[in-house]
Design brief:
The protein is an all-alpha fold. 61% of the residues lie in helices and 0% in strands. It is built from 4 helices and no strands. Helix 1 runs antiparallel to helix 2 and helix 1 crosses helix 4. The relative contact order is 0.16.
């Protein structure tokens, strides 16, 4: 597995861990295709908590305009990846 693939897997795992801390769904049941509202029962309060937890976990600031577009776990993952990539560029 390449370093990039390994990093992506680590991010997916961490995103799923954060999500599993907030929902009664088992960690193994959460996949990239899981729908936030329909499958995980995300509401507005838990969404705010999730954003705060992701920001803290990854040391990022997720843009509010992107959060409103999230429909699946993959959307969350992509936002985290985009934010971590932007942060890495800012640090260079």
């Amino acid at each position: 597995m390449s370093d990039e693939s390994s990093d992506q897997f680590d991010v997916v795992s961490q995103v799923i861990k954060v999500l599993s801390d907030y929902f009664p769904v088992g960690r193994r049941e959460i996949t990239l295709t899981s729908r936030l509202v329909e499958d995980l029962y995300v509401d507005s309060i838990s969404l705010v908590e999730i954003v705060m937890a992701l920001n803290e976990t990854f040391g990022i600031e997720l843009p509010e305009d992107r959060v409103g577009l999230w429909r699946t776990v993959e959307d969350v993952y992509e936002s985290v990846m985009n934010s971590t990539s932007c942060r890495a560029l800012d640090l260079e």
